[in-house]
Design goal:
The chain is α+β, with helices and mostly antiparallel strands. The protein is built from six helices and four strands.
């Protein structure tokens, strides 16, 4: 009996150790990714720090880039200069594209930005009389990336709500990184993400 208890205890300790290890590792990766994202907009940060008159044309290439869009918005908001952010990108759809691209770039996911990304549509699901909106995109990678053979894949940024503003943080952004030939239509994929990811993150708030 004592041997069984020792084995069970060792198994529990191993599981706890693994969870702690994963948590610390993800925190480290998140910190590193945030540093990388800041460095991508370093030229724009330096323009502000140098006291130069920052113009809209200085901001445009950073706002248009999928991997620099969110960071650019946050920088301008912090500087009180959102007037420099392109109006045509001041939408939930545009912010959702940047959010999904940054999520996909995380090392535990696709580990890089999609080579192509297209907006498929917005899908809405109700929970407790509240609307949960998800922007679905299809994306793909070129060779030699491991996901290139998958062809087009689906991902969704969300949930957003009726009162959400552009560049609000969507806690349930997700993609299974599976070929669309192996998944279903975009609405069904959005529903899967809503039920398995979006609602869970919403309930933890």
């Amino acid at each position: 009996m004592r041997t069984i208890l020792y084995i069970a205890g060792a198994a529990i300790v191993a599981v706890i150790a693994f969870v702690v290890y994963r948590y610390i590792k993800v925190l480290g990766l998140s910190f590193k990714q945030n540093q990388i994202r800041s460095e991508r907009i370093r030229p724009l940060i330096n323009l502000f720090d140098s006291g130069h008159d920052v113009r809209r044309e200085d901001v445009l290439p950073f706002a248009e880039g999928l991997l620099t869009r969110e960071a650019t918005y946050r920088l301008l908001r912090g500087k009180g200069r959102l007037d420099l952010f392109p109006e045509h990108l001041m939408s939930v759809e545009s912010s959702a594209a940047g959010n999904l691209a940054n999520w996909l770039e995380f090392p535990t996911e696709l580990a890089s930005c999609p080579d192509e990304m297209e907006h498929v549509g917005r899908y809405t699901f109700q929970h407790d009389a509240r609307n949960f909106h998800y922007h679905v995109f299809r994306y793909r990678k070129a060779e030699p990336h491991w996901a290139a053979p998958n062809g087009w894949m689906l991902g969704a940024a969300g949930p957003y709500f009726d009162d959400s503003e552009p560049y609000d943080f969507p806690a349930g952004t997700f993609s299974r990184c599976s070929s669309t030939e192996k998944t279903t239509d975009a609405e069904t994929e959005a529903r899967w993400i809503h039920e398995n990811i979006g609602l869970r993150t919403f309930r933890r708030r």
